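Checklist before submission:
- one chain only
- standard amino acids only
- sequence pasted in full

Submission:
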Amino acid sequence: MNWNHELLLSALWVLKAYAITVVLAVAAIWGLARYTVWGRQFWNLSGAYFMTRRGWRPLVVLAFILLLTLIAVRLDVLFSSWYNSMYTSLQKLDEAGFWFAMVLFAILATVHVVRSLIEFYVQQAFTIHWRVWLNERMLSRWIDGQTYYKTQYLGRPVDNPDQRIQQDVNVFVTSSLTLSMGVINALVSTYAFTLILWNLSGPLAVMGVEVPRAMVFLVFIYVIVATVLAIRIGRPLISLNFLNERFNADYRYALVRLREYAESVAFYAGEKVEGALLRSRFAQVIANSWAIVYRSLKFLGFNFTVTQAAVVFPFIIQAQRFFTKQISLGDLIQTAQAFGRLQDNLSFFRNAYDSFAAYRATLDRLTGFTTAIALAQELPAPDVRADGGRVALDLLTVRRPDRQPLLERVSLEVEPHAPLLIRGASGSGKTTLLRAIAGLWPYCEGGIIRPENDVLFLSQKPYLPLGSLREALYYPGHPPYLASPAVLDVNSSKRLQEDTVTRTRNAGQNLDALLAAAGRSEAISPATAGADDAARQVLRQVQLGHLVDQLDQSADWGRILSLGEQQRLAFGRLLLARPVAAFLDEATSALDEGLEEAMYRLAREQLPDTILVSVGHRSTLLAFHPRCLSIKGGGAWELT
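Returned file contents:
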């Protein structure tokens, strides 16, 4: 190799390889997306990200990553030739040639280090941007149209959606780039090192027949046979990795539920039952882990055997030519390295089969998730329409999922001055009727008339979001003098990133304390005193005055407040929101009759024009509801 012209030759090689690789890659992607299941799965998940109508940036960055990958291949070829030159100079005792090789190594090593660092940064930036896009796409589809709620009505509800959004998206993005660039590197390197080995290998007599360039044919036969056997051994890893993700997610979900319902479990003294459930789910994780270990032992044992046998193979084949001085020591070393690299490249699919198995399992999980979202969005929806501020039912029939009627052909209208109470036996369909009015229950026919906006539903157990008490009070809106939640999230993320970089420069940091400090809510001064006074006044009106000084304190208020306090906080929401219509589903079940009367009286005094519909069992509620819809069962009903 003439090192004086190698810069120009390498540039031409990279350009040619780049052009050919781009054409073949585009053809391969098209073929995989059209003719393979997992290719279609990938394209359905991320095809839109690479569409030029979104912008050229993802394609430009991906093209640059491809260029860096091909430069890495060329550097490997140059290092292979460098080894030949260096060992040949040692064999010939050529001191000048040896020191020239050392200078050359310094140049090649510098280029390699710079290229590696640039590649690391570009790949990480690319995967982060891709992950942000895919996370937003998944999250939007999961949240929009209340799909997160509707999937429970599917025949096979999707399991662990939290893991699929948080973990599987990250694995999918990272593995997609790593495996795709690994395949390209392996294929291009295979071509490059095949040429090197072709020039270095000689004839070999096999059963009396002389085979020219025999080593090239031997390495291809060796690896192809080994790859076929490895795939047969490793195929069960696909299903085992899929089950590993699912069992771990189920175990984690059970642990989260125990924390969420800790008080209820403690009152029941249900530790033994919960412990048995947790141990049962953990046993599934361990059993599957052992299955993966045993299968991986077979798979890795075969791979290690094949790889170790390949180490001495080229030396054995070329030894005779070396001892007869047909080739130099440098040629022998380069032959061994080229053979090893070619064997590694051809073995890429065999060695990375477990990675492909895990990637395929991730593809299946994300595809199952998107399929569940699509099916949920195709479920029938109630005919909910707006007609000013009216709340009315027009021949509404509500059924159970098995098509049995709960209510048949209900027609009524609720006026602001005449709140409606819905009563009936447990399981008769009271809450289901509210679900239908909210547009959540798919099994109904007829018309539902209610305002499109300015409607508030209060459930028996109010939802309190993570954050400050003030944010919980204004939920699902936000305090009028605060930035929108999306802006707050971005600012918090940037602040956390800056704080983390600053505070972790020294070793030994307490990371839990660091994150807690970075994520702690800061008191935000109100733009106007009136807005702050409104929240404080409402807390006092719903008899939560002892919480006034904690309005801007961030905590898990769903755990701190009792159910009765949470229900009074929900009435505070009602007073602040001042909706056109409000629907209360046993919203005072945890209150005594005195507090219940105080809350309803407060609502009627403060919101005289709000249309009010309540669900409840207590006869004391009749005093606040001039009209009552009694659900008799079997579709029968009575309005009194």
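Reviewer check: The CA atoms of residues 261 and 387 lie 41 Å apart.
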